[in-house]
Design brief:
9-stranded mixed beta sheet, alpha/beta, 15 strands, single chain, about 260 residues, about 20% helix
Length: about 260
C-alpha cells in the first residue's frame, strides 16, 4: 500500500453482542480481519446505543443475536444507510427471539428489518449443507467455488426481495419443529438466500447470514455448560475470503453495485 496520510483514515463501527453465541470469538475474528487494512480504525459496542460512532462511521459491521434497536436507534440506522452508509450485516443481525414454550421470532425490529431486507424466522438443527454461488460473475463472489459448511440455515422473511442481488444461496425445506421454532413449516424448495446486497436510498446493506459460533457458556442460564464448541463457517477458508471481500467493499476498494 502506498504511503498513507491523514485523509486516508477509514472509520468503522462494530456492533457485536447479544445472546447464545460466542461473541468474544466473533469479535476477535472481525477485528483481526479489519486490522489487515492499516487505514481502518474501529470503535466497538455490544448494541446500537453508540449513536455518535454509528452516525460518523464510514461503514458499519454487525454480528448480533436478539439485539433490538429502540425507535431512536432504528431511526439513526435507517438514516445512516439512506444517506449513503454501507452496512455489513452478519449472521443474527436480523433476529429477535422470545424463549418460552418454544422459540418465537416477533416482528419487533421496525424499520431496521426493511433496511436489512430480511428478518430471521427459524433454522433447522445445525447441519452440513452446500453453499451455492448465485451470481458467479459478481466481484464479491467471483471465483468462489460452492463449498460445504456446518452452520445454521437461516429461513427468513424477506423484505423487497426484488431489489436484492443474491450472491449465495442454499436449498432446504421441511419442518423446523425439532428446533422449537413456532413457525416451523417450510414446504417450498425456493432458494434460501445466504448473502445478498440490498440497496437502500443512497446506501447499501451487504448481508451474510453464515457465521454461527458458540462456546461452552453461551447458553446460560438455560444450559449451564454447553458441551460442544461450535465454529460453523468460521472453519471454512471461503468464509474468510468472503469477509475480506466484504470489508474491501465497505472501504470502497472493491467496486460492487
Amino acid at each position: 500500500m502506498a504511503e498513507l496520510g491523514a485523509d486516508d483514515r477509514i472509520d468503522a463501527h462494530l456492533v457485536c453482542g447479544g445472546r447464545f453465541h460466542d461473541f468474544d470469538f466473533a469479535r476477535m475474528q472481525l477485528l483481526q480481519l479489519m486490522g489487515e487494512d492499516p487505514r481502518i480504525r474501529v470503535t466497538v459496542s455490544a448494541d446500537y446505543s453508540d449513536l455518535f460512532s454509528i452516525s460518523n462511521a464510514d461503514f458499519l459491521v454487525t454480528y448480533t443475536c436478539d439485539v433490538r434497536p429502540d425507535p431512536r436507534e432504528q431511526a439513526v440506522l435507517e438514516r445512516y444507510v439512506r444517506k449513503g452508509g454501507k452496512w455489513l450485516a452478519l449472521h443474527g443481525t436480523n433476529s429477535a427471539l422470545e424463549m418460552g414454550n418454544g422459540v418465537a421470532t416477533p416482528r419487533v425490529l421496525g424499520s431496521v428489518a426493511k433496511v436489512l431486507g430480511s428478518q430471521f424466522i427459524a433454522h433447522p438443527p445445525i447441519q452440513e449443507f452446500t453453499v451455492e454461488v448465485t451470481d458467479p460473475d459478481h466481484p464479491l463472489v467471483e471465483g468462489i467455488e460452492p463449498f460445504q459448511t456446518d452452520d445454521e440455515i437461516y429461513l427468513c422473511e424477506l423484505h423487497d426481495p426484488e431489489e436484492h442481488t443474491v450472491l449465495l444461496h442454499t436449498h432446504w425445506h421441511g419442518d423446523t419443529g425439532a428446533g422449537g421454532f413456532h413457525e416451523n413449516e417450510w414446504p417450498d424448495d425456493d432458494p434460501r438466500p445466504i448473502s445478498y446486497l440490498r440497496p437502500y436510498g443512497d446506501g447499501c446493506v451487504l448481508y451474510n447470514n453464515l457465521g454461527h459460533c458458540r462456546g461452552h457458556w453461551d447458553m446460560q442460564p438455560m444450559v449451564p455448560f454447553y458441551p460442544k464448541i461450535e465454529r460453523g463457517s468460521w472453519e471454512q477458508p471461503a468464509f474468510y475470503e468472503l469477509l475480506r471481500r466484504a470489508i474491501r467493499w465497505a472501504t470502497g476498494d472493491l467496486a460492487a453495485a
